[in-house]
């Protein structure tokens, strides 16, 4: 986790700050072409920062008890059971979807803002889920997330992630409480 957090995530923040600084310079010089050239770096690195922040806030030590969904997230547990029939069926669907990601990306449990229904979706690279869906939880499926500990065994990584999933945070997101759920990203919550 140290390498993942202090090297990979930090690099997204460093690169985002550099790109935003360069964009500000280009804007002050009225250099529209340079501003457009920087947009891809801004999108990628901002996505990396947002996704990783949501990921860290979705995890908790196994000893915290936050991994017991029925105890700390009864409303979300009911929503999952309603949608997938059982928590085990949900886990199987989540893992199957995550294992189907080709290359780098993210597996998400999202909520439709209109119907309030739960859905599974993936995103490539550092993209956010599309369609204005509310993020309930996400799992990093980039190799750097699992390779050091699990080598190329993504299935084992996914099996173990449930032991450290912070369902209390997921419950808050599901109930629509951005200040409590999104922590340091609370200002962005209305856009996620």
TrEMBL record:
Keywords: Manganese, Metal-binding, Mitochondrion, Oxidoreductase, Transit peptide. Its main location: mitochondrion. PROSITE patterns: SOD_MN. Residues 1-59 form the Manganese/iron superoxide dismutase N-terminal domain. Its cofactor is Mn(2+). Its EC number is 1.15.1.1. It catalyses: 2 superoxide + 2 H(+) = H2O2 + O2. InterPro entries: Fe/Mn_Superoxide_Dismutase, Mn/Fe_SOD, Mn/Fe_SOD_BS, Mn/Fe_SOD_C, Mn/Fe_SOD_N, Mn/Fe_SOD_N_sf, SOD_C_sf. Residues 75-173 form the Manganese/iron superoxide dismutase C-terminal domain. It is an enzyme of class 1 (oxidoreductase). It is found in: Mitochondrion matrix. Mn(2+) binds at residues 4, 52, 140, 144. One of its GO terms (molecular function) is manganese ion binding. GO terms for cellular component: mitochondrial matrix. Belongs to the iron/manganese superoxide dismutase family. Homotetramer. Destroys superoxide anion radicals which are normally produced within the cells and which are toxic to biological systems. This is Superoxide dismutase. It comes from Cladophialophora carrionii. The lineage of its organism: Eukaryota, Fungi, Dikarya, Ascomycota, Pezizomycotina.
């Amino acid at each position: 986790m140290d390498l993942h957090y202090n090297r990979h995530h930090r690099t997204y923040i460093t690169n985002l700050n550099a790109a935003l600084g360069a964009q500000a310079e280009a804007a002050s010089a009225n250099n529209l072409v340079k501003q457009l050239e920087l947009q891809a770096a801004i999108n990628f690195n901002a996505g990396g920062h947002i996704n990783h922040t949501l990921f860290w806030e979705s995890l908790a030590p196994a000893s915290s008890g936050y991994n017991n969904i029925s105890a700390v997230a009864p409303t979300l547990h009911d929503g999952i059971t309603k949608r997938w029939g059982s928590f085990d069926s949900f886990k199987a669907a989540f893992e199957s979807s995550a294992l189907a990601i080709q290359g780098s990306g993210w597996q998400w449990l999202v909520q439709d803002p209109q119907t309030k229904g739960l859905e599974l979706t993936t995103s490539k690279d550092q993209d956010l889920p599309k369609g204005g869906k509310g993020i309930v939880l996400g799992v990093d499926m980039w190799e750097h997330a699992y390779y050091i500990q699990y080598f190329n065994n993504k299935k084992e990584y996914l099996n173990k992630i449930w032991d450290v999933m912070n369902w209390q945070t997921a419950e808050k997101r599901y109930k629509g409480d951005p200040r409590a759920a999104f922590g340091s990203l609370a200002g962005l919550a209305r856009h996620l």
